[in-house]
Amino acid sequence: MKNLIVFGLFVLAMVFVQFAQAQTVDDVLDKYMASMGGKDKLLSMNTLFTQGVSVMANGTEITNVTHKVQDKLFRNDLDFGMGTVVIIVTPEKGWRSNPTNGGAFEPMSAEALQGNLYQMDCAGPLVNYAAKGHKAELMGKETIDGNECYKIKLTTKQGKEIMYWIDSKTYLVDQSSQKSMGGGRAGGGDAELVFTYKEYKAVDGIQFAYSVSTTGGFSGTMTYEKIEINKPVDEKLYKPE
Questions:
Q1: pTM score, whole prediction
Q2: In CATH, what number is assigned to the domain containing residue 138?
Q3: Number of domains present in the structure of the chain
Q4: For 113-156, what is each residue's pLDDT tens digit?
Q5: Closest by alpha carbon to 184, among 86, 70, 56?
Q6: Which one of 15, 21, 126, 142 counts the least CB within 10 Å of its CB?
């Protein structure tokens, strides 16, 4: 009987720990959404347009234009000056243009498409994550560039894992990391990509990082020149042409 009581207390303790952890994750993400502009404001985004220039480690400049339509489209147009790459993700199909083949579009693999569906989310997968079918776990705290951050592991409903480091003071994302996949952003192939976010500014009440540095499969810094939300998107952008 004594052993059963001890075992029962152990089970209750484990349940309590898991519940407390879930509450802590949600508490951090509630504060994150508040710092970003508020949950309702974030969920009101139906379209997102960004335009900027990436300067790579070798000095190459790449013009980067992205269109998002909530749960319907992610399109990334990259202009290298001597060629372009276009990435299109829709709920059912995805394509990537091949500059070595005259810019012809090639279908994404099913795996690559599944790994990139989250990019159609204007607010990002952390916002209202549970309702979207994702899972978030608090992995403790780590220091990033001198800032104490909450480390959160997000697993999308398609199984893609993304790590986020949220500043414990500002509750904005300082850094994220993920594995790239063939057919994803420029470069293709699998590699660990690390993104560092700086220079947050408000656009219609929502905070966006205007400087994003990348290391991993390729290295460079993106500086955004224009960010717009809830603007009409031309239907032709959905098509691989």
A1: 0.84
A2: 2.50.20.10
A3: 1
A4: 999 999 999 999 999 999 999 999 999 999 999 999 999 999 99
A5: 86
A6: 15
The two tokens of residue 54 are: 């990436």
Question: Residue 187's closest CA among 145, 161, 215?
Answer: 215
Find the domain containing 142 and state its range. 2-238
Q: How many residues can be counted in the chain?
A: 241
**Is-contact 172 42, C-beta < 8 A?**
no
* Contact criterion met (CB below 8 Å) for 154 and 164: yes
Q: How far apart are CA 14 and CA 18, in angstroms?
A: 6
3-state secondary structure the chain: CHHHHHHHHHHHHHHHHHHHHHHHHHHHHHHHHHHHCCHHHHHCCCEEEEEEEEEECCCCEEEEEEEEECCCEEEEEEECCCCEEEEEECCCCEEEEEHHHCCEEEECCHHHHHHHHHHHCCCCCCCCCCCCCCEEEEEEEEEECCEEEEEEEEECCCCCEEEEEEECCCCCEEEEEEECCCCCCCCCCCCEEEEEEEEEEEECCEEEEEEEEEECCCCEEEEEEEEEECCCCCHHHHCCC
